[in-house]
Protein 1
Amino acid sequence: MSTSTNPQQQAPLSLDTLISEITSPTSFPALAHLLKSFAPKDVRDVILGSTLSGGGDPLDVLDVVSNTLGVLWILSARVNAHPQARPRFSYIEQFCATFDVNQARLAPERVTLLARGIVNISHQMGDPKLSLKPLYDLLTRFPPNLSYLTPLHPLFVVASLQSSHLPSTQQTPITRVLSTPIKEINTNLCPDLGYNDNLVYHYVGGCCWVGSKVWVEAQEFFEIVIGAPAQAPSAIQMEAAKKLLLVQLIKDGKLSPLPKYTHPHLPRLLKQTPYHLLVKHFPLQLGELKSVVEKERDVFVADENLGLVLQVLDAAPRWAIQKLTHTYLSLGLGEIAKSVGMEGEVEEVGRILLSMIEKSEINATISIDGTVTFNDSVAGRGGVSKGEMDRALREAQYQAEVLQYLEREVGRSREYLVKAAKGRDEVWGGAPGIGDEDLMLGVGPGAAVWEGD
Amino acid sequence: MDVEMVDQTELPSSSTTKKKPRIVLVDDSHPFELESYISSYSGRTVVDRLTHIMGLCPPLAPQALQLAVQEIHKMRDPSMYQTVISTYDQTCALPDTQLPAALDVVQINQNWVEEMNAKNQAERMKLEVELKTYTNNMIKESIRMAHRDLGDFYRNVGDASTSMKHYTKSREFCTTSQHVLDMCLSVLELLIEQKNYSHIATYVFKADAALDTASGNNGKEKEAAPSQPTTATTAKKSVDRERIQTKLDFATALSHLGTGNYEKAAISFLKLGPVSGLGDWVGKLVSASDIAIYGTLCALASLSRGGIKAQVLDNDNFGVYIENEPYVREIIEAYMGNRFKTVLELLERYSTRHSIDIHLTSHVQDLTTLIRNRAIVLYFQPFATIKLERMSAAFGWTVEEVEKQVVGLIQSGEIQGRVDSQNKILKAKQTDSRAALFAKALQAGQDMQSANRKLLLRMRLQQADLVVKAPKGYRMDGVHPSEMLLQAD
């Protein structure tokens, strides 16, 4: 970005002059700077939102593709202004689908502003679904690819969740976005990115996965939220921790440890909530579970987690039965009912068993006299195909490469070298004979191991 | 003595009965001879043990009370009268017990009490005056001896805490490591008497250090005041050292037992030196047959079959202990011969003997359960499938009980098998190790990848300084996510 151009002392104050600048720019960076600095902030958007001196719409004069930068500024000013100045929605849609990426990247804040405006407008029009298409276009076209986190991400998933667009097996926009893991954070690309964007995107994304009952992904998303670097745990992280707990109970029937780098306050805070009681009684003490849910209903409702909690309740007997398969080969229905705490509800237990067999969660047969025979679990047999193995190996090798590259990057980064040099002085009392090589080898033992393959 | 009673030790839920009054049965199938048992002890422990028996075993209480009172008269602690009688009264108050009142069983010799009190008072005065004089004169050795004498005195009259105070105080005035050693041994005796297991290790450690110094110096130059531990490392074991070592080993073993660390206890008991090494502790604190029982039970509960063979059966030193209690050998032989029914029957038969021991009493249940579990695991090991009926015959239980035990063991992961509840068959689990390994490796790979991805993202976030920061006040100041995500929810 060119910041060294001469400061515009005498800014052109009328929109007409601006338009002429926009249509015949010397260079795009210069234009970007001009648009940023031609007037003080509060005046700027008013000017951009006004009409031409002849009363015409400036957007009609400009071409979306060749004048993207100008259109972006004007559009982003007008979507957030009063309703009369608002451009046609079809125009916005068209812009989002066709704008010139390189020009738009000169004004990333305006892209965010435009996206916010789109969300607002669709709300005022009473149909959040409208915003999905333009937001998706922005999202897919603005960053180099979907693995870059942008401030557009949270806006898009929130809009999706509101319009009940949940990820599914089909290649819908939301599925595509959510199944591309975020890997890159680039503050040059999006200087207005904040920690909340990351938290909100992954939290709401997790909620979307929960909505479509894809527990693996939901768990992954919530774990990212919980594991986000924090000086003090944020409220979103706390909510994510609650949801993660419920998701884990449904998915695995037990709690797995939180990521190691979780803020230490978080588990402690979680222990004080009624959610912890659920874990204590899960899955065998169905009676206690129910009474906890009854007693703490208000808390769960207030946290908007009642739906998940009820699913936990449904999952409890399933996990209890799952546990039985490890101990028994055959068991009467009545005995099963007794040991999962549903005495007298033999038919209900039979129903659950059938549905578990259907979903091949267990491998069992029910005979006419009510004897259930558990066979060996399906997963344990059959083994792994060669193709699967090869794929796993390839993935591992790719990972190793990534890590090795990263290690080298870190190894030659300024920050690291400064620290390493400092540390060496302290540890060995300034013995300069010890080479850098040794120091760096210790950084990534994983990479060294994989190299051998 | 042989009185039929409702057997309450058999309740499965009584594994953690420490406070709850437990009643031990004495009858034909649980033989116990009080007089021959108590005759192998002397001194204070006799009364302690009898008191314990009174609390546990009402049928034996009157006899125990008589014996206890006889023993008290030989000593100089009138307060024991009270302890003994109140324990007896408590036992009388238990439901379903009809015992003669304490005063019908024994006569309290009031004259003796007063005499003894006066005598104790006089001696205390004498010893304290002595201590004062020595302190004023600042004669180190005499001060130490005065403290030691006071410690002994208080111990005899039953004031353990004051006794302890004087013993530990005497440490400051020890000039030779032999003195430190003496002090440690006195303290250890006191601790064992008080059943204060957790502190034993500290003093054993101190004594060990002192022992190194003492025997090192004695062996080399026999100086009067060898305070420098220079020759300690080259010390060769003298006979004297070995004797004290046995005492220390015993104390360590007992502390492990007391804290429920059965495996360590077993190992320490099994490496004890010969009985002679325990010196005056035999009878005063413990009997050889006690050691045989402690060691064997702990070994059966915690060691492997090979370990038992090597460390119990082929152990000449421990064999001597076992000679004192022939049934212990029977148990071991039955266990080694896979006759588990006999093992359990013997354990049950001698449960009275075990529960009545002051050190073992609170561990009997745990040890029995552990031995039983091990027996079941061992029994099942060679089979791929087995009918529960056969197991029930081998262990002498009902099929339901066997099933319950087996299911418990499967759930705790000690038996790799599954129960066919309909046909009453226990079947070993067959795992395809190859497939399991593949599955495990793939899973590990996936987990690692996902962890990596999250970590890298976290790193990027940190590099970009997108770190959650606390608001100016403290967290959650009205920033509830439901507000942040109003639309989202």
Protein 2
Amino acid sequence: MAQAQLPVSGELPQVSGHHPTAWKWYDYFTFNVDHKVIGIQYLVFSFVFYLLGGLMAVVMRTELYTPDADVIDPNLYNALLTNHGTIMIFGWIVPAAIGGFGNFLVPLMIGARDMAFPRLNALAFWMLPPAGLLLLGSFIFGGAQAGWTSYPPLSLITANTAQSMWCLSIILAGTSSILGSVNFVVTMVKMRVPSMPWDKMPLFCWAMMATSILALLSTPVLAIGLILLLFDINFGTSFFKPDAGGNVIIYQHLFWFYSHPAVYLMILPIFGIMSEVIPVHARKPIFGYKAIVGSSMVICMVGLFVWVHHMFTSGTPPWMRMFFTVSTLIVAVPTGVKIFSWTATLWGGKIRYTSAMLFAIGLLIMFVVGGLSGVTLGTAPVDIHMHDTYYVVAHFHYVLFGGSVFGLYAGIYHWFPKMTGRMLNEPLGKVHFLLTLIGANLTFLPMHVLGTQGMPRRVAMYDPQFTQINQICTIGAFVLAFSVIPFLVNVIWSWGWGEKASGNPWRALTLEWTTASPPIIENWHRLPVLTHGPYDYGMNGHDTSPAIATHS
Amino acid sequence: MKQLPASIWTLTVGVVVTLIALWAGNHSGFFPEQASLQAPLVDNFFNLMFMIAVALFLLVAGTIIFFTIRFRQRPGDEEDGVPLEGDFALEAYWTLIPAVIVIVLGIYSVEVFTQMGGFAPGGGGGNHLFMSHHQHHEMKTQLVSDDPAENAPEFKAEYGLGGAGKPDVTVTVTGMQYAWIFNYPEGITAGELHIPVNKSVQLNIKAADVIHSFWVPQFRLKQDAIPGHDTELRFTATKVGDYPVVCAELCGGYHGAMRTRVYVHTQEEYDQWLKENQFAQNPDLSGAVAVNSED
């Protein structure tokens, strides 16, 4: 590689003598401390849970094809909606984006051989399978049915065993997230190659930094809320029992103090993925590196002070409604900066229509819809009408599906060659993209209208006047479910028999592309030296034309 | 790019986007009919934001799609793109303009919120039927034995939308799995809400078991009923008719079925309804029967 393979003499001479050079398939099922193994463990684990959560959504949409509760029992419906939300957040987006891509990429991008605390890292991952099993096992006891928000008193009086399992599961996942975050911060502060100053660190790493700080500040608060809830259910305390002097509003504050930032935990790493994918496939330097770093940090800080906008119609005094309206609107500014920066990155580029790039562009447009509807929801006067309606469901699916899931797909198409040493099939990827785009809009766009007209969320039965629009949404959900098939076929086939990938198939400039695909254990024989920035496309004489791009 | 055509293009795009946005802002057409004084306030505010949102969406999405097509890789071109890393003026614009927009929207939403009565919860001080008791059983017994004379402790709503002065009608609303109960100071208990048109109505909202949320989409008003916390809604219905009352907060398996109606009457009809029900339910304070029959 032209850029980063200048040998450093005296660097770990006998490192490859002691280790195998590649992992066997069964190593991926063990307590392995290699960050790359752990990253792939996270990704595969979370994708399985994505399929489970998606299946739940399909059952719910089938139920909603008709106004009456005629497919499943309404209590089971509530269990599905609770676990759909929980799984998609704690079992899919958070572990895939932070655990999966974070673990695989951060050490490679900063030129480190592993994370700072490899055993802690493995421990953090292995907390998730029990957390997932607790959620699935809770269905034996009816499943938690109080929504992923689990507001008391409903959560105190409904399906106690399942609700307790739900609490334990989230506490486990939260602990895992805290451990992971500590690891990321220390790794990035201490383990960058000496030649990488802060302002040459790839934007994905900056996004992970903001994400980790946010997770460290907010996750403990959720854990506190859920431990109190667990005690109320099982040990006779009454923190949230109004008839025994408890206060149900306090729970909402504890819950949303974490769970609004959780939205940023789910989107900041995705923003990081965007900042990597777009420059590579547009052959352009990222536009406004410092603005993107700054906006991540601003989102991280302001994001801690917007949580009450989820409580505008509950116990919220007027001044609080207004304070949090304004703080919520402010988040739109740094988010806009990112969108505009990526758009400007496209200008003057030589854009490749790869599957990764298509998902990234799809994300840009979908996320703009979600962001704009978020602004309308963020204002108290409109939220008093829209709160807890399908408008909210539409909004957060545009952000979390159109944003996070599109971003995860973009990341998978982009880094699959690095992770597995095989290319994904591009035509199948494009079919997958088209189906996903159509399915997502068909499912979620009409929901704006449903909510505005008066359909509340989280209902198994609804007023017959909403039947037609619900049927469109249900058909959209079937398209979405179907869209996973080409992707699954593609991944499974390509992983085994796909075209071999070179070390740097996209001719990208960040450090993870300077090693083999898949990277050797401990990443490099000799650590790379940074000779240019991560996005210097067409700059500083770093011509990345194919002649020098082959590296194996 | 040549100067003149570029500016003509920009102008055309600007005009078209503005026209579409203006049209969309006035024809969003998603809302159900407006039946309270607050409804037009919410709708106008939403439509303003919708107009801005449509304009921004067209500009941003249009730009993204245009760039994607215009700057696609041409066959055989393996060069990199223009090495442009930033532009301070441009970045300042797209930070400051959205900042100004959200600040204006923030100020405007405070204004709308004030007009809706958002800064006056607890100020309305209506006549309250219930003490702020939270025990389930006591709630139930009180539901059937409301005696206007015994309302010793004040109803103290910390949260909700209030209003100054004495309301014309005060109704106590209780949410329970899975029904709404409406209690009138005249000693009437009903399963639907009956109110006169163009009169200020005060709802004192309570919950008997779990959190519910009182929502009338046609009024654009929603307030949670919270066990242990009194809440209130003050509004004036402006259209005779009947509208759905929907529970908007997940409250259990049959949450979706927790629906009833609000009947907005003319004053004469309302008086008549009051008289009939007072007579039927209350000659000797035996309201318990009526409660059971009306759920």
